[in-house]
Amino acid sequence: MREPIFVKQNSKKWERFESSTTSDADELADSFIQITDDLAYAKTFYPKSKTTTYLNGLASRFHQSIYKNKSEKGNRFITFWRFELPLLFYSYRKQLLYSFTFSLVFALIGWVSAKYDENFIRLIMGDEYVDMTNANIAKGDPFGVYKQSGEFSMFFMIAVNNIYVSLSTFVSGMIFSIGTVYQLFRNCLMLGAFEYYFFSKGLGMQSVLVIWIHGTLEISAIIIAGAAGLVLGNSFLFPKTYTRLFSLKRGAMDGMKIAVGLVPIFITAAFFEGFVTRHTEMPAWLSVSILASSLTFIIWYVVLYPRALNKKTLYGTSN
């Protein structure tokens, strides 16, 4: 866009930041993130303008305020998960909604396909897994697969696999977003068939109480990784007022931040799967508590908190 339009759209915000005397770390971090985004844009399109010089000075001021006392690394780490990542969730809430919708539809397709085609489950899950699970059901231990490996080895294997799935789902967005949609299709089709299999055996509620101890965080993170892939792919397909190259760079950076930000969630899910899910006889109230806590966290951190944080950033209040 033209420089006068860029200045007009953001001048009031910059004036508010410039006149701010706050020492609150939260507000300083919010302002710094927005200013550096604007500065990056100005450096790209108006590298020698007074606007760029002004923003550079303003960013330096906030940088000094936030990173004083030589605590730059610690502050940056906290800022990312407390402010930057949630604000990215809010900025790309449409992609999150699209990814959730795709995943839900694909899971339903997997469920219906398994219901009306008795060979579909074996096609998707493999004969070996189905035969093993049938044998476990006959022995009265339908979820015995989660007890076959040691806790730590299972935790490590699942964590690595989950992180790989997340990054591959994100990177696949380079294929014009179609690659990411395909990755969601594969994972959620299997999820739908998997759940139908246990419901068809009369183990539906038990499967929810056992499998979704780790599945709540794991599947949620895959959906969010799908959103990251859509951010990457759509940045090239729909650059809006930016050049296609600038839009792609921005989408790649934001998408990577979202994908990397999922690592703690995947590690937590792997911990549950390796150390907790194997206790299939735990009380129902404990399973429900873990499920509810995981789901509450995802809804709060990905939807509610980003909305509140964005409102605070726009209006400078906590209301």
Q: End-to-end span in angstroms?
A: 33 Å
Give the H and E element order. HHHHHHHHHHHHH
How can the largest sheet be summarized? none
Q: Which residues sit in consecutive blocks of at least 5 with pLDDT less than 50?
A: 69-73
Beta fraction: under 5%
Classification by helices and strands? mainly alpha
Count of helices?
13
Radius of gyration: 23 Å
Could you report the average pLDDT, rounded to the nearest whole number? 87
Domain tally: 2
Number of E-state strands: 0
What share of residues is helical?
over 70%
InterPro entries: SpoIIM-like
Keywords: Membrane, Transmembrane, Transmembrane helix
Protein name: Stage II sporulation protein M
Give the SSE layout:
Blueprint: H1 3-19, H2 25-45, H3 50-66, H4 72-91, H5 93-116, H6 120-125, H7 127-138, H8 151-171, H9 178-200, H10 204-237, H11 244-261, H12 263-276, H13 284-315
Helix pairs in contact: 2-3, 4-11, 4-13, 5-9, 5-10, 8-9, 8-10, 8-12, 9-10, 10-11, 10-12, 10-13
What does it look like?
This protein has 319 residues and is mostly helical. The protein has two domains: 3-70, no CATH class; 90-315, no CATH class. It is built from 13 helices and no strands. It has helices spanning 3-19, 25-45, 50-66, 72-91, 93-116, 120-125, 127-138, 151-171, 178-200, 204-237, 244-261, 263-276, 284-315. Helix 4 packs across helix 13 and helix 10 packs antiparallel against helix 11 (244-261). The protein is elongated and about 75 Å long. The relative contact order is 0.11.
